[in-house]
Amino acid sequence: MIRLDKVSKRYPNGHYGLVDVSLTIRRGEFLFLVGPSGAGKSSLVRLLYREETASQGEVFVDQFKLSSLRRSQVARLRRQLGVVFQDVKLLPERTVYQNVAFAMEVVGASSRDIHKRVPQVLELVGLSRSRDNYPHQLSGGEQQRVGIARALVNNPIYVIADEPTGNLDPETARDIVKLFVEINRRGATVIMATHAKDIVNQMQRRVVAIEHGRVARDEVRGAYGYES
Amino acid sequence: MNTAALRETRCGVHMAMNLNGVGYIVRETVRNLIRNSWMSLASVSTVAISMFVLSFFLVLTTNLNHVTAVLQSQVEMKVFINRQAPRSQELALLRQARHWPDVRRIDFFTKQQAAASLKQEFPDQRNLVALISKSNPLFDGYDVYTYRSQAIPQLAERFKKKSIVHTVVYEGQVVSRLDKLSNILRWVGWIVEGLLGLATLFIIVNTIRLAVFARRREVQVMKLVGATDWFIRWPFVLEGMVLGILGALVADAVVDGGYRWLTGVAAVTLPFWPLASLHSVMSEVLIFTLIGGVLVGILASLVALRRFLRV
Fold this sequence. Notes:
By secondary structure, chain A is of the alpha/beta class.
């Protein structure tokens, strides 16, 4: 379970990313984070994988209390999470397969497990045939799929995606979201920050809207709710 | 991809951790060294120069210690005994002093023996010989040998306290000056080495920082997918160690060659000068340079990485 308890995030320049946000996300949920650009979605996501820490309040991810984590525990926390970044963060000089395997390698998986697991995940995201391509040989949607495969490869309990469809055409974006639904169906909790209005409306999932750093809406079967 | 299979994989991840890590770390280290070969070469050279200077001071102090030791073994202290003292007391003190901690050897001589050895040493001095033959002005006494020159003054005091002792004579000044000199040299050596060590550190820090910078994206991804700091550090730490060890070995080779040459030359031109053996010099040089190289390498990589690990 993820729980934010009266969390505020104030940046060194005095700007507030989040103000007094309280939120509970249960295991197995599928949740859209929506809101205008700069409203605080990314701040919230970055707090979850502890790229940043809250200025006030507390963030809990399962047994982890994020304000008081030692560095070694940060690594353990992140192994519970699969994060998909808007800018994907693929390593350009590694192939699709190597990019995904890298995530297993650096947490110390055996090569036997890697050989077994990586093809499974590539199959799931539909990239089995591109496994030996380099990122620059892929389309934006395919690159995003590699990012998703990398996020999934270590079996995270929570999959957190920060605008994974941001740079994609609607068609591709829909496919990516379908992929997240499939991931959710297989048991992972999915938290997805997005601008994709049509998709959110169509999916009828829990929607948390963030405006000016505050939770403006939290609906079980919500809609995007903004004119875009 | 059923859940049971996934869970099994997760367990495997933790159990296999260490062994799989080693292969990765070694691969990455070699890769970094090759990718930055010019900077690596520069680092190795700097370490080598720094370690060569360290070795220079080591060779110097080792030799001074050696000379001091040689001189010490020749140093003797003479203890003279009052003329009135009976033989039994002389022998009693001899037996007693034999067990004092700093006494390596103690030999008793009578004034007749002293006179005899004088005559032997100065056969041409007729007047002297005549004088000591008529009425022997010399004393009974002991020749005392010690383990360490620093103990001589104390030992002398101990003898002087005995009522039967007349005077104690020793030549400890040369030795104590040599001791002082080698102490000063040791300090100068550490200071010079400290400064050079800092310079070396900076250069290795830069080499490793280049390696880290070239791989900053990977480091970032590693942090974000949950690699531990030490897992990320190891390849760079190992790289630092390799640079340090290579540099130290280069310096050691130069010192070894140089010292062989020096002892060869000295054997011809200064045969009486007691040079320390190649073995004793090199064993000290090897230990200190390798430890120094490794330390500087590790420290440099830790410093270089600090900034990049804050993700």
